[in-house]
Write a structure and sequence with these properties.
- By secondary structure, this protein is mainly beta.
- The protein folds into 4 domains: 96 residues, Immunoglobulins (Immunoglobulin-like); 90 residues, Immunoglobulin-like (Sandwich); 113 residues, Bulb-type lectin domain (Agglutinin, subunit A), CATH 2.90.10; 105 residues, Alpha-Beta Complex (endopeptidase fold (from Nostoc punctiforme)), CATH 3.90.1720.10.
- The protein contains 5 helices and 35 strands.
- The strands form 8 sheets. Strands 2, 5, 6, 8, 9 and 10 form a 6-stranded mixed beta sheet that branches. Strands 30-35-31-32-33-34 form a 6-stranded antiparallel beta sheet. Strands 1, 3, 4 and 7 form a 4-stranded antiparallel beta sheet that branches.
């Protein structure tokens, strides 16, 4: 039990609090003030486009409301900063419409964050929106590729423009081979927004190129459209023609190169870079000339370095599919890199685009191969090519069948048939398809690149030849490849 004095003090405190409460009520009533109710929050929303083209304006918008009411004619401050930084650098003020909607347009050159703020009033609390981000889509364009059709050994120059944010940065020139992109050159973007990248053409495959920038938090990666450059491949050096420094003769199958090196040495190399033969010469400004007199001469500024000492009125130098560099005169060899002038060599298939190409390989249409119809016939020619690779009989027996039947016949004996070309495979079309005609067609695959294939063929019309088929063509799409014995060109 509390003492009597303590109970008295408690009663006195309660009485005092009661008096204060009544006095406050009278004061509020007398001044016209009402007792405060619950505070209603202000809601400020914001939205921005996910991306815009670099240099263009992004429309940033949102709404301002309190409870169910939209706040009209209210100032909304918009601020922005570069992604990856902490300091807000830009600002603008927008005014809400009668429906509480506000918007502003802001030029965007890099990835940018935005936030809106409402300062509030005596009756309406302040509010700050979430942070939203707009990515600036950078641009890289390829404007010129020169030369349009370069030869092996030539420098290929790619120029173009880039958006303002990329100025002073490095862009990469990339090449696609068999589905993989590899950087082959780099270039700095100038203060004017231009770049120049250069590469030396090293092989006969088409150059599928693009230009790409790196990515940071503030600057998104940019990639140009793809440009395809086809290499001017020649296997021959005609009478009176010259092969200067770094220029190349390439065999039609793409496996061998004869290169006039800058140091004055003429060399024959295979696809791995191994040297098969060289002139062993050196000299500044050296060039190789197929003379009108039939003599192949390698000369520098100081004079003649080497020659074949041959003669002929229609001589031509040929880089053959077998890796042999040969001087021919009207079909007969005068000199070769393997035999010199001591022995003659046979022309190898296929360095011309006429019937000579495949007749030089010892194919004789008058002979029946695999019991096919003799004469100019696609199946007879492909049968010959298979025999030259050791497949002496038709894998599916006799009769061998028309070209349109080869696909089904191969599948019956479990020979692989697919859409993937390989050197030495048989390309086949069914009848009444692109490339097939009324009876179908077959040919021999001589070379495969990431953009095209080279085939040799014979046909009823006698149009025996070599031709290139692009991978993006309807003719390629309708074909299938029969893998009887894919061991390279015979």
């Amino acid at each position: 039990m509390r003492p009597a004095g303590s109970r008295a003090r408690a009663r006195s405190f309660r009485s005092l609090m009661t008096v204060l409460a009544l006095s406050l009520a009278v004061l509020v009533s007398g001044t016209g003030l009402a007792a405060a109710g619950p505070v209603i929050a202000t809601v400020l929303t914001i939205k921005a486009p996910a991306s815009v083209a670099a240099g263009k304006s992004a429309k940033i918008s949102g709404t301002l409301s309190t409870g169910a009411s939209k706040l009209a004619a209210a100032p909304v401050a918009l601020r922005w900063r570069t992604v990856g930084t902490s300091t807000w650098k830009g600002s603008a003020v927008a005014t809400t419409s009668s429906k509480g909607v506000w918007s502003a347009k802001v030029p965007v050159t890099v990835n940018t964050e935005f936030q809106a703020q409402f300062a509030g009033t005596a009756a309406t609390p302040a509010s700050t929106s979430a942070v939203v981000t707009t990515s600036a889509v950078q641009s890289i364009k390829v404007t010129t590729v020169s030369p349009i059709r370069p030869a092996i050994g030539q420098v290929l120059t790619v120029t173009g423009t880039a958006s303002a944010a990329l100025r002073g940065r490095t862009v990469s020139l990339q090449r696609s081979r068999f589905g993989t992109w590899t950087t082959v050159a780099k270039s700095a973007v100038s203060a004017e927004g231009t770049y120049t990248a250069k590469i030396r053409v090293a092989d006969a495959s088409a150059y599928v190129l693009r230009v790409r920038s790196g990515a940071t938090k503030s600057i998104s990666r940019a990639t140009s459209v793809t440009r395809t450059v086809y290499v001017a491949v020649t296997a021959t050096l005609g009478t009176g023609k010259k092969l200067a420094g770094r220029r190349v003769l390439t065999s039609p199958n793409g496996l061998y190169n004869a290169t006039m090196q800058r140091d004055g040495n003429l060399s024959v190399k295979n696809s791995t870079g191994a040297t098969l033969w060289s002139s062993g010469t050196a000299g500044k400004g050296a060039a190789l000339t197929m003379g009108v007199d039939g003599n192949l001469v390698l000369a520098a500024k100081a004079g003649e370095l080497w020659s074949t000492k041959t003669a002929g009125s229609a001589a031509v130098l040929v880089m053959q599919n077998d890796g042999n560099l040969v001087v021919f005169n009207r079909g007969k060899s005068l000199w070769s890199s393997t035999k010199g002038t001591t022995a003659r060599v046979r022309p190898a298939a296929c360095w011309s685009l006429t019937f000579d190409c495949i007749s030089f390989s010892s194919y004789k249409p008058s002979i029946s191969y695999w019991a096919m119809y003799a004469g100019h016939n696609c199946t007879n020619y492909v049968a010959y090519r298979m025999i030259s690779k050791g497949v002496t009989k038709s894998p599916w027996g006799l009769p061998g069948g028309s070209a349109w039947q080869w696909r089904a016949n191969a599948k019956k004996v479990k020979i692989k048939v697919d859409t993937n070309p390989t050197v030495g495979s048989v390309i086949q079309w069914n009848r009444n398809t692109n490339g097939g005609g009324r009876s179908g067609h077959v040919a021999y695959v001589e070379r495969v690149t990431d953009t095209s294939i080279l085939i040799s063929e014979d046909s009823w019309s006698g149009n025996s030849a070599v031709r290139t088929i692009r991978r993006d063509s309807a003719t390629f799409a309708s074909a299938r490849f029969i893998h009887i014995k894919d061991s390279g060109s015979a």
